[in-house]
């Protein structure tokens, strides 16, 4: 939650939250800065839990998208902020999803992210690679071995700020986190 609290309040305008999960981010939005949240969560069970939190949270207007991130039903360049919190690890086709996010993001918009992924030290990476097949089955398709900054940059974004660290609350193999902000890569 500490990393979410550092990232989510930076959202502005029309927001696309990809992978809304159980709605943990809803109460963290700054209602004075956010006009609307397009919430995308393909899991009906998670969406049902999020809708309960939505009613309880002092959140901006939330509209649910009945889609996947590989086929976003939003107009080109219609979103000011895209929010990813612990989502890229479980998207099946990251390249397609990031391409869709790039398409809907306004030219001066930002992609804000808080993700876990591939660790920097050899021992933890070895453990991540060893555990990844079982972990994916147990944790809803979550990949332990995705290098988040490389994925984002490979998707056509330019990272503006990036921080990385192990979280103290989680085991090292799942607790290496990346967080920051990216914009459309102007060189493309």
Report on this model:
With 188 residues, this protein is α/β, with parallel strands linked by helices. The chain is built from five helices and seven strands. It has helices at residues 2-7, 44-56, 94-104, 122-138, 148-154, and strands at 13-18, 34-40, 61-65, 79-85, 105-116, 157-166, 176-184. Strands 3-2-1-4-5-7-6 form a seven-stranded mixed sheet. Helix 2 links the parallel strand 2 and strand 3. The mean pLDDT is 92.
Q: In which order are the strands of the major sheet placed? A: 3-2-1-4-5-7-6
Which term fits the overall shape? globular
Radius of gyration: 16 Å
Strand elements, count: 7
Q: Residue-averaged pLDDT, rounded?
A: 92
Low-confidence parts = none
What fraction of residues sit in β-strands? Answer: 25-35%
Major β-sheet annotation: 7 strands, mixed
Structural class based on helices, strands and sheet pairing? alpha/beta
| Proportion in helices | 25-40%
Head-to-tail CA distance between termini: 34 Å
**Topology as a string of helices (H) and strands (E):** HEEHEEHEHHEE
Which oligomeric state applies? single chain
